[in-house]
Amino acid sequence: MITATAVEKKKLEQPPLDIHFLGDRVLRQPAKRISKVDDNLRQTIKEMLQTMYSADGIGLAAPQVGIHKQLIVIDLALDRPDEPPLVLINPKITKSGMNLCSSEEGCLSIPGVYLEVTRPEAIEVSYKNEQGKPCKLEATGLLARAIQHEMDHLNGVMFVDRVENNLALNEELKKRGFATSAVKPVRK
Ligand code: CO
Fold first, then answer.
1. pLDDT tens, position by position, 56-109
2. Which of 83, 97, 114, 136 is deepest in the core (most CB within 10 A)?
3. Residue 81 phi/psi, 5° resolution?
4. Catalytic choice (138, 150, 164, 172)
5. 150 catalytic residue (yes or no)
6. How far is the CA of 39 from the centre of ligand 1 (A)?
7. DSSP codes, 89-105
8. Distance from the CA of 180 to the center of ligand 1, in angstroms?
9. Rounded to an integer, what distance in angstroms lies between the CA atom of residue 130 and that of residue 86?
10. What global pTM score does this model have?
11. Ligand 1 centroid from CA 152, angstroms
């Protein structure tokens, strides 16, 4: 059995997967539930991790590399080589805290753009790990934010869709060469 999470946390000259950028329709397609956790899937997880580490990211969702599956990888410990990354298969938020908080987010699919997004501060999520074992996790702070950001990708939602400050949004996107028409505001 492959252990995808044992992959070395380093940059590769030629990452195995290509990341799609804002404006690409691929990012707007919803992801499908994964029915079988096998070596094939673990190979995909490994390649997603290698691609994420190569891009200096802390999270990557499968749709960002053109794979329409409910699969996310997250690593908030890039400086700790022995700490395994988090792999979430078919994640589902089972509880959301009442407290909202605002913090800056970025995305490997929108390089250079960093903007404030408001989200629940704490969540509880259920998912399967890379061995296919059902797991549950309570998260707060940056981890809760990363999980929610990546889970949005599974529904074709980008973090810029949630930015409330339109002025800052348009300015940042323009500066980085992205079309403002690529934003699909989330209705509240
Ligand atoms: Co993202």
1. 999 999 999 999 999 999 999 999 999 999 999 999 999 999 999 999 999 999
2. 97
3. -60, -25
4. 150
5. yes
6. 25
7. EEEEEEEE-S-EEEEEE
8. 17
9. 9
10. 0.96
11. 8
Place of tokens 């994640």: 91
- Ligand 1 centroid distance, CA of 35 (Å): 24
| Cα 6 to averaged position of ligand 1 atoms, centre (Å) | 23
Report the pLDDT value the prediction gives residue 188, as an integer from 0 to 100: 66
Greatest CA separation found in the chain? 50
* CA atoms in the 13 A half-sphere facing the CB of 114: 3
Residue given tokens 């589902």 in the structure block: 92
For ligand 1, the distance from its centroid to the CA atom of residue 161, given in whole angstroms, is: 11
**Which residue is it, tokens 């070395």?**
8
Q: Rounded distance, CA 143 to CA 136, Å?
A: 14
The token pair that represents 142 in the structure block: 């940056």
Which residue in this structure is represented by tokens 């022995």? 82
Q: 41 and 131 in contact (C-beta within 8 Å)?
A: no
Which spans in the chain are helix H? Answer: 39-54, 141-154, 166-175
Across the strands, what pairs with 124?
A: 95, 138
Give ion ligand 1 contacts, CB < 5 A: 107
Q: Low-confidence residues of the chain, pLDDT below 70?
A: 188
pLDDT number for residue 51 = 98
